[in-house]
Specification:
Blueprint: H1 3-6, E1 10-14, E2 19-27, E3 35-40, E4 46-50, E5 56-63, E6 65-73, E7 76-85, E8 94-95, E9 104-112, E10 122-132, E11 139-147, E12 153-159, E13 165-169, E14 176-179, E15 184-187, E16 196-201, E17 212-217, E18 222-225, E19 227-229, E20 232-235, E21 243-249, E22 252-259, E23 266-271, E24 282-285, E25 299-300, E26 303-307, E27 316-317, E28 322-324, E29 327-331, E30 334-339, E31 351-352, E32 358-363, E33 366-375, E34 381-391, E35 400-404, E36 412-413, E37 425-429, E38 439-445, E39 451-453, E40 456-459, E41 465-475, E42 480-489, E43 500-504, E44 510-512, E45 520-524, E46 537-541, E47 547-549, E48 554-556, E49 565-572, E50 578-585, E51 594-602, E52 612-622, E53 632-638, E54 644-651, H2 654-660, E55 665-672, E56 676-684, E57 698-705, H3 712-739
Parallel strand pairs: 2-8, 9-15, 16-23, 24-26, 29-34
Antiparallel strand pairs: 1-2, 2-5, 3-4, 3-6, 6-7, 9-12, 10-11, 10-13, 13-14, 16-20, 17-18, 17-21, 19-20, 21-22, 25-26, 27-30, 28-29, 30-32, 31-33, 33-34, 35-36, 35-37, 37-40, 38-39, 38-41, 41-42, 43-44, 43-45, 45-48, 46-47, 46-49, 49-50, 51-52, 52-55, 53-54, 53-56, 56-57
Keywords: Membrane, Transmembrane, Transmembrane helix
Transmembrane segments: 714-735
Protein name: PKD domain-containing protein
């Protein structure tokens, strides 16, 4: 099948250019010579071709889009069609009907107001039989036209006997109207009576002298261009006419101003580039032309003329609300801010039923509809609405708790005793909460400085004790309610014991983790911790038989032992769980004085029985690092330190001060000699008053006492022994003095 021979319309497409060629056919009594004119609805581009003898016509390089197409020919009724390219290809055949005709001739004479003939005027006759105009669904009487000659006459033949409407247009004149009952038409020249002065300003407020200014007289459906002088544009409408003044500029979006009824002169300041919805290639009029104007192509220059689609009302809520099913939910008696700033109009000039583009209202409980009606420059209107639900009811918060011991275990309802810290998971479920409108959020506070959100949440408590779990339910209006559950978490973690200690030296400085015998050691267990946060109890064992309680006890170690004292701290929490820590503490030894006997002598080295002998002992102290702080006693004994006490002498007062300064101090005692070789012992600090570094304080010396009947041999032997012992003692103390620097 050859499509080119079977279809009424033909099409060829150049796919790379996205342009289309179209061929159509016209069916009529005489289908040749028909003017076919299209206007691209998007761009305003237009083209006219004439049909061939076979009724065919064609267009090349059509782009995608919508087209208005009018078929016209004298003697035929015009037809308006629309194309959607490429979906309407191939083109359907168009049928045209014959226009009414007859044998009547009519001559129309056109004069000006002073009776002079007007030549070059265009005269339109419109019959009572309708044909399609350029405006969809708007008809016009079958129209024929002719121009007046120098005599002001325009002749028409082959008319019917019916009455025709007359429309006359001429440059410099207002459009005139009449009918064939009186074919003499008088036209009024455009004069200064209603001169409209127009000044056009750019966005910065500067006047523009290169704008395009024109007007549309809606009363007569006529377009008039302005005359320009410098930066001013002049228009001359007729009295009482409805006029639309347009200002266009290549650099800015256009503006239009409506003059509802012209009366006298006026001045208009037109600000352009104020309406982003305006289009530089389009001109909008308020309604379809009439009085024959609908037969004219909807073009003004290279701009397409369209009907004003009217404004598009749009409103929004600028207050924080909750949207639910297309409505905005607020709390009862709350206020809502609205804005209609997103409303648009291609002709601009929007006004709002609120009085401005913003509006605020307060709403009692219930459902309310708020509307705004916007009106554009031409008076066209549109309305937008928003539903406001003012919720006066608080939600009801409720939740349950179940416990899981681990991820795979079955859950059990929380019963107050079955929740352990760290290991158990609690599932809180607030799905039983309710609200008359809708719940927007669930907020949880677990009482342990943690939180969560959602209708069902899981939580593990790290610390034992009582925790108030608080659920806050907020509805879409912002109303809220809370529910609290007290949760007891079992303690499963023992405390952690820790302590430090120190003593104060002679300057008052803390000597950390050291102890000194005889000085207070300060213990501090405040760094012990427990996750429960409850008070801890402290039990101390100082390893020397002493004990204490409390976080910061004080203890004095009297002396030291090998490897130190084992100090043990036991910390117990409120759940009776405990921890133990211990340290070996070996107190440092203090410096001590060393008192010793330097020498001992007798007032008579060879006494006779019954003689009184003065015993003289020299005492000294190594007291550079520590001094003797108390008076002490020096004792003299016979035969041994456990023997007979001969006598004592005190080191006190000035003697004590001297000995602390390293000076030798002599003490004496008297003894009544008894016969024989006797050993005299002297010991310093005999009653152990002084704490010494070395407790070696005695000295001894032999003395021989003669009896009245002693033999010389015995005496001689005794003397030898005495000399030997005396020599030994003297050597020993000389050696000791040399060791200690005496």
């Amino acid at each position: 099948m050859l499509l080119s021979g079977a279809l009424l319309g033909l099409i060829s497409e150049e796919s790379s250019a996205a342009e289309y060629d179209a061929v159509g056919f016209i069916s009529s009594t005489d289908s040749s010579g028909v003017s076919v004119t299209y206007i691209n609805q998007a761009t305003g581009s237009t083209q006219t071709v004439t049909s061939q003898e076979d009724g065919s016509y064609s267009f090349e390089d059509l782009v995608d889009g919508e087209y208005s197409v009018r078929y016209s020919k004298a003697g035929s009724l015009s037809v308006l069609d629309t194309w959607s390219i490429p979906s309407d290809l191939p083109l359907a055949e168009v049928s045209m009907s014959d226009a009414p005709s007859g044998a009547t001739s009519v001559t129309v004479n056109v004069k000006d107001g002073e009776g002079a003939d007007v030549s070059g005027a265009t005269v339109y006759l419109m019959s009572g039989v309708s044909e399609d105009s350029w405006w969809e669904d708007v008809s016009v009487g079958y129209t024929v036209s002719n121009a007046t000659g120098v005599d002001g006459n325009a002749g028409f033949d082959s008319l019917t006997v019916d009455q025709y409407d007359i429309r006359v247009e001429a440059a410099g004149y207002a459009t005139g109207f009449g009918d064939t009952s009186d074919t003499n038409i008088v036209m009024n020249a455009l004069d200064e009576t209603n001169k409209q002065t127009v000044r056009v300003f750019d966005p910065s407020g500067s006047p523009l002298g290169d704008a395009t200014v024109f007007m549309y007289d809606a009363t007569s459906s006529t377009w008039y261009d302005a005359t320009k002088v410098g930066y001013t544009y002049y228009l001359h409408p007729t009295t009482s006419s409805e006029v639309y003044v347009y200002a266009y500029h290549e650099d800015y979006t256009p503006s239009v101003k409506k003059i509802a009824s012209v009366s006298g002169t006026d001045t208009h300041n037109v600000n352009i580039d104020t309406n982003s919805a305006a289009h530089d290639d389009l001109i909008y009029i308020s309604e379809a032309p009439s009085n024959g104007g609908q037969s004219m192509e909807p073009l003004s220059g290279d701009r397409m003329v369209k009907l004003n689609p009217g404004p598009t009302a749009s409103m929004s809520v600028t207050t924080d609300t909750t949207e639910m099913d297309g409505s905005h939910v607020i709390a009862a008696d709350g206020s809502v801010n609205f804005s209609a700033s997103s409303s648009t109009s291609p002709v601009g000039g929007l006004t709002y039923s609120w009085g401005s583009e913003t509006f605020t209202n307060t709403y009692a409980a219930g459902e309310h509809t708020e509307s705004v009606t916007v009106t554009d420059e031409f008076g066209a209107q549109d309305t937008a609405s928003i539903t406001i639900i003012a919720d006066g009811d608080d939600p009801v918060a409720a939740f349950t708790a179940i416990v899981k011991t681990n991820a795979g275990s079955e859950s059990m309802a929380y019963n107050g005793t079955n929740l352990d810290e760290d290991s158990n998971t609690v599932v809180f479920n607030a799905s039983t909460s309710s609200d008359s409108v809708g719940i927007a959020s669930y907020s949880w506070n677990f009482g342990d400085e943690s939180s969560d959100s959602g209708s069902v949440v899981n939580h593990i408590f790290d610390n034992p004790g009582a925790h108030d779990v608080v659920l806050t339910v907020t509805d879409t209006a912002g109303n809220s309610d809370t529910e609290t559950m007290s949760v007891m978490v079992n303690d499963a973690t023992p405390p952690s014991a820790a302590f430090t200690w120190y003593y104060l030296n002679e300057t008052g400085s803390e000597i950390i983790e050291k102890s000194m015998e005889g000085e207070v050691t300060y213990f501090n267990a405040s760094s012990s911790s427990d996750n429960s946060g409850d008070d801890l109890s402290y039990a101390w064992d100082f390893g020397d038989g002493s004990e204490a309680t409390g976080a910061t006890p004080e203890h004095t170690f009297n002396g030291t032992i090998e490897d130190g004292f084992n100090v043990v701290l036991t910390v117990t929490d409120s759940s009776d769980m405990s921890d133990v820590i211990s340290y070996k503490i070996e107190p440092a030894l203090k410096a001590r004085p060393d008192i010793y006997m330097v020498s001992m002598s007798f007032s008579n080295d060879n006494p006779t029985e019954g003689d009184v002998v003065t015993l003289d002992a020299t005492v000294k102290c190594l007291c550079e690092d520590a001094q003797a702080d108390s008076a002490f006693e020096v004792a003299f004994y016979l035969d041994s330190l456990e023997g007979t006490l001969i006598g004592t002498a005190m080191i006190d007062g000035a003697d004590l001060e001297s000995i602390n300064n390293g000076t030798n101090v002599n003490v004496t005692a008297t003894w009544t000699a008894i016969s024989g070789a006797q050993t005299i012992f002297a010991t310093a600090d005999s009653n152990d008053i002084i704490d010494e570094s070395i407790e070696k304080n005695e000295i001894s010396k032999v003395i021989t006492v003669s009896a009245s009947d002693d033999s010389s041999d015995v005496t001689s032997m005794t003397m030898i022994i005495v000399v030997v012992l005396a020599a030994f003692g003297t050597v020993a103390y000389i050696y000791r003095d040399s060791l200690f620097g005496n």
